[in-house]
Fold Endonuclease/exonuclease/phosphatase domain-containing protein.
Amino acid sequence: MRKQYSCNHTVIVGDLNQHLVARAFEELLTVYGLTNHVTFPTHISGSSLDPVISDLPEGVVTCRPLGAVGSSDHLAVFSTIHVAGLRDVPKKRTNWLWGKTNWEGLQDALRHTPWNNILTGDVDTQVRSFTSTIHSLQRRYVPTHTFTVKPLDRPWFGYNCRVAADEKSRAWKRFRRHPTHNNKQRHKEACFNMQRVQRVAQQRWQDELKFKLSDRSVGSKSWWTALKEQQGFAPDDHIPPLNKLTPLQHRRDVAGLCVTYKILKQGAPHLAILRQPWATPHPYSTRDANKRDQQLIVPFARTATFFRSFLPRYSRLWNHVVRQTDMHQAATLHIFKCAVNAWLMPSGHN
């Protein structure tokens, strides 16, 4: 799913019957940092067969049963996600007032500019010097206005619209504090003025857009993008990224080490059957003996395919982690998983 869709968060619901694939279900939660928010039975037999899985914190997602639906033997699960929508921060925009430009001063400055001393060197250097000189003269002789652009502002909502909107807001606050007839009339006039300014801005923006699209130099992609914006369609920006796939064994090793971490460091009671005894410390002092008490006894196994291979493989891999790194001292499972994932890369411990 994460390869097919580009999303900020993931929520998986359904009748998954995870008790049939308990180990694969545990690996799924561990490897991808997911949480099952259903902690109550969802079947009339008393089993929990309808999980709600997400990568959101436990306090964000809450679930509760609603009872059976119709003749179904499953209970409906009511899930609530407490999240706030992401909003872009306001930005500052500079509006150049070309109508109030001091053209005489600008022309005089251009005539007295020592171009022979500025335009020296190769072509790239001359272009940078010329651009820098023009920009400095522009900032000197062309007045500007700086105003705040909010994320929800329309493309035609420029400086004049912002001034009218601010004036309307001030008039409304004044009328709310002092509800007199004069303040009410001022607020009414500010509303009419804002509507007038918006109509002018919209018409100007549409005229400029028509003039731009009538130019033969406009490509078909730009033309269709502008047309979709006019019709209210958002541009298609949901093309999924081509993430580099990791081998299946790599993900299994990450899951196995995370399960071992939960057994040894977090004392997960449902995984106590997999706990291995600690290795006996060396009676003498060596460089490896300092970490001997954090290593496990590796059991013997004749198979490399069934569940009996889990304890030998990941006990041995855990000992490698302890001897070569300090990842086993991580404070949280998330920190440990990220460190193990980087350590198991081809350029990591191999």
In short: The first strand starts at residue 11 and ends at 13.
